[in-house]
Design a protein that fits this description.
Chain lengths: 130, 406
């Protein structure tokens, strides 16, 4: 692709306008918070893991349109997956599932990947304690 | 349907009357104003001189010859600063400015600093207004120039240019002001306000892009920055952009004519917007000065809602934001930073730039849109939850961040 993508794809707009899985999983056993308001984006991802599988997932995000859309997309992608399968999902895969992101927005997809890793880490830490 | 345009600090559409004035100079009247040996050239020359007069009239210049046409305000700013620096003091000397100038000033002084000039930034208050006492104390025997904008393009704050001009003249220092945002919005008179140089852009006042001017008071000597042919009294070489200059002149005449009616109308719209936002949306803070601001500028931070996402939600209105995510540099607004707005709120800022096409209906429509989407996006924002729990997000311990931008 030689032409630089400047605008959001229809899929990004769809996830931005109708984000899936917004909120906090009530009986979450893993929570990841990444980002920083100083940098302009914060993502909180909560998961409910049962038998090593993500059975419920929700997000809350402060960030640009791309940050919100990638958050929404990542929740769709991991629901029902085992933890190891979920950890295989890269930021590039999330961006691709959205039909691509403008180059300057690629870093937003890193946030979604980081939030997922942080939530799974948190779950595993919780398991050790129990 | 195209969005409602509300970004008039970025640019304005060409007024139909301005375009009409320009048209003949893009077609039949094509002569080079330097070719005074024939009719073609003389026609073009007289159009350029008419425009010079119209512009001089707008700013109260005593002589039309004090207007130097340029490619825009960026060039005018460069000519003013480098011109004075490399003429009067042979590459040395002291300049005073403020941190919220346009990049055409800031990048120029920073380059001059590297070349051996000294630069001081006069302190500004939380609204962006310069501290006059502190400014006076910065003046040194080798101060060659004070350059302070008339109005800020992001937060609309007006500077006390007449007072600054008086201070400069008492100390025998040249005073330059970038008046790009202010012309046609507030009354400026270079003689009354003791201004020695003033930068002008056509496209910010319903004229065409690619043309501007620098007012240079008679007696102020500048080193030219573009050489070859000695046009514009040797200040700026290059065949004149006749159609553009005619457009600039027509825009100046229109700005002067409409100032008395348009500025109060815009001020009313501005105050309506500020009042309605404050009445309808909590956690919203006005950036800049409440009253001492451009009649067409409003700038708010809507806490816990990132600016780019709000622009996207409100895309039926063309607006801009100080958020990092809307800049190519991925840095939030340096203007908001300089007046002490924390990064967390700079990312949440939206600039509303009102203009001739905007109406009360636009304001009401916009506020409804903001209400709907700020509430929706806050429901989605983890920061809003934290704030409701009483956590101060600016002093919270945030974890390590793997962002590319830092």
């Amino acid at each position: 692709m030689s032409k630089e993508q400047l605008e959001y794809t229809e899929k990004v707009m769809d996830h931005y306008e109708h984000p899936r899985n917004v909120g906090l999983v009530e009986d979450a056993n893993g929570i990841g918070v990444v980002g920083n308001p100083t940098c302009g984006d914060v993502m909180k991802l909560s998961i409910r893991v049962e038998n090593d599988r993500i059975v419920d997932v929700k997000f809350k995000t402060f960030g640009c349109g791309a940050a919100i859309a990638t958050s929404s997309m990542v929740t769709e992608m991991v629901k029902g997956k085992t933890l190891d399968e979920a950890l295989q999902i890269s930021n590039k895969a999330v961006a691709e599932a959205l039909g691509g992101l403008p180059r300057v927005k690629m870093h937003c997809s890193v946030l979604a990947e980081d939030a997922l890793k942080a939530a799974i880490d948190d779950y595993r830490q919780n398991q050790k304690v129990e | 349907m195209k969005p409602i345009y509300m970004d008039h600090h970025a640019t304005t559409p060409i007024d139909p009357m301005v375009l009409q004035a320009m048209m003949p100079y893009l077609t039949d009247i094509f002569g080079n104003p330097s070719s005074t040996t024939h009719e073609y050239g003389r026609e073009a020359r007289s159009a350029v001189e008419k425009a010079r007069g119209q512009l001089a009239d707008l700013i109260g210049a005593q002589e039309a010859a004090e207007i130097v046409f340029t490619s825009g305000a960026t060039e005018a700013d460069n000519l003013a600063l480098k011109g004075i620096g490399f003429h009067s003091s042979h590459g040395k000397g002291h300049l005073i400015t403020i941190a919220i100038e346009h990049k055409a000033i800031l990048d120029t002084v920073s380059k001059m600093q590297k070349q051996g000039f000294d630069v001081d930034f006069a302190p500004i208050d939380a609204s962006g207004q310069v501290d006059l006492e502190a400014l006076q104390k910065l003046i040194r025997p080798d101060t060659i120039l004070i350059t302070i904008q008339a109005a800020n393009s992001e937060i609309g704050t007006l500077q006390p240019i007449a007072e600054i001009g008086k201070i400069a003249h008492e100390r025998g220092i040249v005073f330059h002001t970038d008046a790009v945002q202010a012309l046609g919005k507030i009354d400026i008179d270079v003689v009354r306000d003791s201004i020695d140089m003033l930068s002008i852009s056509a496209h910010k006042m319903y004229g065409p892009k690619g043309v501007g001017a620098l007012y240079v008071r008679k007696g102020v000597r500048l080193a030219s920055q573009i050489d070859g042919g000695g046009h514009e009294h040797g200040f700026r070489s290059g065949t004149l952009n006749v159609a553009g200059i005619v457009g600039l002149g027509a825009a100046a005449e229109l700005a002067k004519k409409e100032l008395q009616s348009e500025a109060p109308r815009l001020r009313k719209l501005r105050d309506r917007l500020i009042k309605k936002i404050e009445a309808n949306l909590d956690f919203s803070t006005l950036n800049g000065h409440r009253t001492n601001r451009l009649p067409n500028n409003v700038n708010f931070s809507f806490a816990f809602v990132e600016g780019e996402s709000l622009l996207l939600a409100c895309r039926d209105v063309a607006l801009s934001s100080g958020s990092a995510c809307t800049s190519s540099s991925l840095q939030s607004s340096y203007v908001l930073k300089a007046i002490g707005v924390p990064d967390s709120l700079a990312h949440c800022s939206i600039r509303f730039g009102l203009g001739k096409s905007n109406t009360e209906e636009h304001i009401d429509y916009l506020v409804d849109l903001l209400k709907k989407h700020v509430v929706r996006l806050r429901e989605m924002s983890p920061l809003y939850d934290m704030a409701k729990e009483g956590i101060d997000i600016d002093h919270h311990q945030w974890g390590e961040h793997s962002h590319d931008e830092h």
